[in-house]
Amino acid sequence: MPPGSCNEPHLKMLDFLDGEMYFEISQQPEWTRMMKKRNVTDNPVISVRNLHKSYGSLKALDGLSFSVQPSSCFGFLGPNGAGKSTLMRILYGTAEREHGKDTAVNVFGFDPGSQSLDIKFLSGVVPQENNLDDELNVTQNLRVYSKLYGMKKNEAIERIGSLLEFFELSEKRKSKIKELSGGMKRRLVIARALLHEPRLLILDEPTTGLDPQVRHLIWDKIRHLQQEGLTVLLTTHYMEEAERLCDSLLIMDKGRKILEGKPRQLLKEHIENYVLEIYEEQVAAVLGSRKIPAGVRKDGPPDRPVFYSNRLAALKRMSKSMEGGGYHIRQSNLEDLFLKATGRELNAEQ
Amino acid sequence: MPSNRLPSLASRITSVWYRHMLVYTRNLISNGLPPFMEPLIFLAGVGLGLGKYIATMDGLPYIQFLASGLLVTSAMYTSAFELSYGTFIRLEFDKVYDGMLAAPISVNNLLVGEILWAGTKGWFFSFAVLIIVSVFGVIPLSFSLLAPLVGFLTGILFGAISLLVTSFVKNINHFNFYFTGLLSPMFFFSGVVFPVKSLPELIQPVAWIMPLTHCVDLVRAFCTGQFHPVLWLNLIYILAVSLLTGHFAIRRLKKRLIQ
User: Looking at this predicted complex, what is its ipTM?
Assistant: First the structure.
């Protein structure tokens, strides 16, 4: 499905906004190069229409539609149980979708329901769980996958060497999997997914549970690969990760799309610019007894309320009446947007 | 640049086999030695003790009768372990299959590769038994050199059966029922220890249903060089049970691997 024929109004809006984004980032040479590349081939790498999937009475995916442009990073944000992993699995054919009457899923022109081998050959998958082979060492793990991808021995050995170097794992090439730290395992899984130089990289929560150093290293590597033309699909609940890596974001909850767009644009359109957070209960109690000024929105639990507004002055005025702090004013971020879009209450899956 | 063509069917299946070969040869001594030790222990036990009480069985020296059976029981046990406990661990605990299925390989390719590996182990284990017992002159090396091929078939057969059992098992301890309830009776009533025809007539058909009986008949023919046309039926039965159980095993496991 080409993007122009999409019947979802916000996508047209995004097309319009494209020019603006282009202007904004044209100062950065590698991004411009990327944008140019994108103009050459503007058929989407992935297009999904009206996707449904249930497990018993649980609706994992409920009429999801989106498309992903080549060489872009497309992110899925959503709470646990939102259907992100199920979606990834359906795209490379290890989960089956339901057959709706106007459901269509297309990855590189292939249907994952019947042509998953072709899709998997062009894609690298980093699953949520590190499913490394504990019975083999680091290099052997990669050797098995080089066989699965049909690579010749010499070519495989060379590629494995350069990937281990790229992910700073060269010293561990003969180590047992059990001797690796969480961050090393994660890097190895990503290296494994890149063995055959895929055109699409599917990352299911790539940095969950990792320390900041490793997380930044992985982000660097992903950005590097993306600049070389790789298309990246990413699920995450780290807002920072989404903000840093993704060109487009889709916020989903309970298998449905809630918002979709470029990160900055989503912030601009769907959340107030400034946030006043209250830390102390007494301050909250004082504020609670007062009337909320016009143009300010209140959210969060009563003892730790959060106030949103586009007018910084309004929030400052509110904070002036508070003695000795217990509050903080800042710019809004994706996390605010995420909480607004998906609600603050936990669902059964979380 | 890696090749831009999808690996062939043969290449996909042998990658699975390659994985197992890497794992198996990684601990060459602890994996490779026991298959040779077991027949030694057996020879000592029978030669020093049991053989003194039973000299012949069904017209063969008893030690030869038992040794030929051992060629296929060792193949049966190794392939059964590999595709029951082994498969369950790869499926549920280590998530090895989950990883491999993200590469360009189908559930069919993966599980056919597993069964082929079970066959390979069956071949290797009966080969090890043959080497040891022939060194001690129990089975002469002639047609018997082909006997490990029956070990291969036995490995395929019990690989497929075990895979089907695994497709029903949700808790790894349930394999105890399979080993005690199915494989142990087979060891004793399939003509390994004594000929099937000496069983009560009423029970004999049960013995003929047991797949191992047919492996024993085949392997004993190769070990003694005495062939007869009924062996074709044994072969057909082994192939039919392998195909049937393999087919249903793959169909059932597909539901567990593809959500």
Answer: 0.92
